C-alpha cells in the first residue's frame, strides 16, 4: 500500500513469501473508504502476520489510521500476530512517524542538513512501537540529523535508526534483536541536557548513542544492551 504500484508490488511479495514457505498469502490494497467500513477489520481475522512493503509511509497512514483495519491490526498484534515491514513499512511502526519531509524549503540533494527543532515533519504512526521513533535506510542515507532533532524534541522516546539489509525483531517482553548485514543506531536522550534557541537551533549533551551489530539484543524498557 505504500508503493506507487501496489498491485505489482503486492503480487511480487506474495510470490516471495510463498517461495520462502508461507502457504496462505494474499496482498491487500485498501482505500481509506474501504478501510473505514465497519466490517473491514474482518479481513485480518485469521491473519498470523502482516507485512508492509516499502514506498511512501504516508500512503499507509492516510488509508489506515484510526480505521477498523488499524484497530484490528493492533488487536491481532497484542494477541501474538507478527507485524513487519521494510523501509516505509518500518517507519509506520512507531507512534510518532517520520514522513520523510521537512518544513524548510531546500534545493534538491540538501535535505535535512540541520539539527533543528520544528523542522522534521511527523504524523501519527500505527503505534506498534510506543517507546521509540523509528527511522530507516539510516546510515546509508545519512539520516542522523533528523533523528537527533526528533529525540531532542521528544526526550521520553528512543530514536532507532535501522540501516539497509538490517532489521530489528521486537519481542513481547520489550526487547529487540538486531539481524541482517549492517547496524542499528539507538539514541537515548533520557539523561540529556537539551537547549532549543529562539531560532530553533538545538543543543544536546549527554545523549547516549549505541551502534548495534547483528546479534545484539537491546531492552526498550531498561534502555540497555543485553548480554
Defining traits:
single chain, about 230 residues, alpha+beta, Rossmann fold, four-stranded antiparallel beta sheet, about 20% helix, globular
Q: How do the strands and helices of this protein lay out in sequence?
A:
Layout: H1 6-19, H2 32-35, E1 49-52, H3 57-64, H4 68-78, E2 82-85, H5 88-91, E3 96-102, E4 120-124, E5 132-136, H6 144-153, E6 158-162, E7 166-170, E8 175-180, E9 184-188, E10 193-196, E11 202-205, E12 208-212, E13 217-219, E14 225-226
Structure description:
- The protein has 227 residues and is α+β, with helices and mostly antiparallel strands.
- The protein has a single domain, classed as Rossmann fold, CATH 3.40.50.880.
- Helices cover 22% and strands 28% of the residues.
- The chain is built from 6 helices and 14 strands.
- It has helices at 6-19, 32-35, 57-64, 68-78, 88-91, 144-153, and strands spanning 49-52, 82-85, 96-102, 120-124, 132-136, 158-162, 166-170, 175-180, 184-188, 193-196, 202-205, 208-212, 217-219, 225-226.
- Strands 5-6-9-12 form a 4-stranded mixed beta sheet. A 4-stranded antiparallel beta sheet has the order 7-8-13-14, with no helix packed on it.
- The longest helix has 14 residues, at 6-19.
- The model has no long low-confidence stretch (mean pLDDT 96).
